[in-house]
Amino acid sequence: MLRILLALTLAIQPVAAADLPDLGEVSRQYFSDQEESTLGRTIMRDVYADPRYLDDPEIESYLSQLGYKLVSVSTRNQREFTFFVVNDPSINAFALPGGNIGVHTGLLLAAQSESELASVIAHEISHVTQDHIARMVAAQSQSYWPTMAALALAILASRSNANVASAAIASTQALSIQNQLNYSRDYEREADRLGYEMLSRAHFDPRGMSGFFNRLQRASRFYDSSAPAYLRTHPLTSERIADMESRSESEPYQQIQDSLDFQLVRARLRAQENSPDDAVLAIRNTLKEKRYSNETAERYGLIIALLRARQFKEAEAEVQKLPAGKSSSPMIQQLAAHTAFTAGNSTLALQRYQTGSEIHPGYRPLQYGYISALLASNRSGDALKRVDKQLALYPLDRRLWRLAAQAHAQLGHRLLGHRAQAEAAALSGNLIAAIEYITLGIKAADGSFYDLSAAEARRREWQEIEKSQRKS
What we know:
mainly alpha; three-stranded mixed β-sheet; 25 helices; about 65% helix; about 5% strand
């Protein structure tokens, strides 16, 4: 199970950002940047391995774009962030060590506007920028923190159902640690205030925060012990909601339009619900009755449902109805190319991928699709050139390293292929697998002297890191 819903759900004091106490230096005496980074990688290894992790580059790319739009206007924006999606219908989001922020699909569908979604993400970003984990560790500085492994286990404990205790937690020292990781209302208010400021600076509707939390609070009256996951991990108080509403009332009203990508992401998720045939029927009825807020997004969802149902001819017909050209969303261009690829029309797929990549060179899901299509067409050399060019821009992209491994494998490059697999494993937090892969590559010994030396140096680096992690 994905046991990560600790959701560092902390909060915000009603004081100006400039007046917030700077506890970073004190807290880092007890929980260093390196320790937090190590813990974050350990947790993300389990996230990526869990079946509820939604490996959807398009949705992940959207969340990253939205998240960094908020981070860019934060007063503390030096941190690196990773945004990922959990395939879970409950309404929840959570922050983890190392700047990792997870969002449930249930939250993406429950948000009634992009500003509401942004308000939750801004709240979680504030937990990270304010070093709330480190501050809690510092507050317990006189306590005994046994190992980083025990701390990781506590943070990984399931918070999706507060009434269910983890047997693994109960049998270790992590239970006592988890009891100390009870986040204060002060932290929640702090995250509220800084999140609100981010919303305003990033030109979202700040009323989205009070609107979303108000709706959750009203809904919770009907849940009793089965309250939404977000309320269990982010306890609401009347004081917090009143503070949000008070801030909203002081802001001039302005109509904020949701982005097309926000609508496309929601349509993408809805199209993958239920059986393929039921999804197609439901969306066709919605289009027929014109019960949609955005026709383009609804047709986008219909194409995804048609592809699931293997109705390729109908899917291509719907692609023709979507906007094309330079003004088209990269998500739409990716889907158009993917439709042709899935239908077996590799020539059209490659043409669409090339056009889309030229118009949106920084949209990585298009690059993933383009490289995959080149590999499927046995154009391994072209695929390798493209993936190497992308890796020069994004060296920490585990998906690109996996594609590089495939390209090298097709070309018979055993050392470089295993090295690429190792890099992908390391970026996924699995150093043991990374060391095993790169050792296989070194044994193959089919690369240049430079490649072999670089691989041996990389293995030593990972071995040292893994050794230090075992000692912690």
